[in-house]
Model the fold of this input.
Amino acid sequence: MLLLFWRTLLSGLILLPFAMAIGPRISMRAVRDQALFGIMAVFLYLGGFALAIEQKVPTGLVALISDLLPLAVAALSQPFLGERLTAQQWTGTAIAVGGVLIVSFDSLSFGTAPVWAYGLTVGSMLVFAVASVLHRRRRTQHMPVHQSLCIQTLMGSALFGLCALTQGSLAPPMTRDFAIGMVWLVLIATFLAYAVYYTSLRLFPVHAR
Done:
């Protein structure tokens, strides 16, 4: 939780001046909507996986379940968005899932985690799938990615901070490894990954994920 707190806090603070200076005026309704997405796509998604790994769910299994996100999004796109998949698209999705299984097979194990931790992993993936569909459904109210991601990460940092406080101090480890990890998590895993994903949601049908 401490790692996720600093990841999301630094991401939000770096984006904040750009969100305030560049783009349309941010309304309270937009803040509310993006805060909800922050709870789902940042706090519940990342936090759920982190807690599952903390409970000894093998990382290979966590990665496999995370990689099944496109299948969940495809299944939800028809009832929520009316985006019906063609036979070719279902075939492509099946091939992609098969590829994920092949790549992940050697690292799969079930470990000794409690049953609820495995369910938490699946639930976290499904929460992000629902957030993706809702994000696409509200496309008429989209704001620039740097503004939406700023609100989402700051919302996530507030919740991760509360969780981290129950485990001890919010002070970051003053180590070189922690600093390098933060650079990677903020610039690549947050800015690049989320920006590409949300931009794709805006430009393409949701089942193309």
